[in-house]
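seq:
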Amino acid sequence: MRVNSEFPKQTEIGSGAPERKRPYPALFSILQAEAEAKPRPAPKPLWLKARLPGGPNYLRLKALTKELRLHTVCEEARCPNISECWGAGTLTFMILGQVCTRNCGFCAVTFGKPPAYDPEEPDRVAKAVGRLGLAHVVVTSVARDDLPDGGAEIFAETIRKIREHDPKVGIEVLIPDFRGSRCSLATVMGANPDVLNHNIETVARLQPVVRPSARYERSLSVLRMTKELAGGVLSKSGMMLGLGEGWAEIIQTMADLRKVECDILTIGQYMRPSPQHLPSIKYYALEEFAELKRIGAGMGFRHVEAGPLVRSSYHAERHVPH
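struct:
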């Protein structure tokens, strides 16, 4: 696997976070112009309001991740559910550092040149899982296109270390596309996760704008290969709405996911992290999410989690049989 030569020049990461630059300005302007040509979306509805984090469990998890030098996507991606999930004692680990080699227009995770990965990180994740007493854990990562295998071996080692600490823990991995490498995916699948999650993110038409370093068909192929490599493993994907997609495009994307035997689907509302990110064009109503859940069930998904604050690992423990 080689580093993607299409990337714009990366920002060196020092002691402080760099100023975020808009990804692929020419592409960014396409969606920005589309947003400006349409009526402004209504003010953010009440159901998108999230509680501020706090409480004993939040403080306990904050202290634990600091002690073990671990990162969470809950913090790095500014997840609106951090108060609910951390309050319940659950979190999503983000391995391979906190600096991503991709600069997707929707994502709040820091973009730049990552430092060397920490080979002891998988063991620290496993220790955290044990200390938290988790029955189901979700592990994700930044994209690491600078690594020959995209970080697949670290994913596999993290799964193995968790199993060593507690063989009964359910393990879900939310992976990048590994540039479509079957070998890298096989490395992860060889460690026997219970759920393989890879997000399609948005409809085919918007892929070049929303995530220019990814490909719609490549993401579908990752999910297809998951079933080819280990048919018994549950596959999962996620979409965010509000970037300018049409209703028919959403349904088509869901149908495309079912064609590659995707078992579980999450659908949530895109919320713009900053003015440097892609604009929010529409806020979907609760009834629309409920309708998508109904349609997904009719298509044959084992589980559809749909709602404005739904994210990839939201209620993940409820998506799998116990």
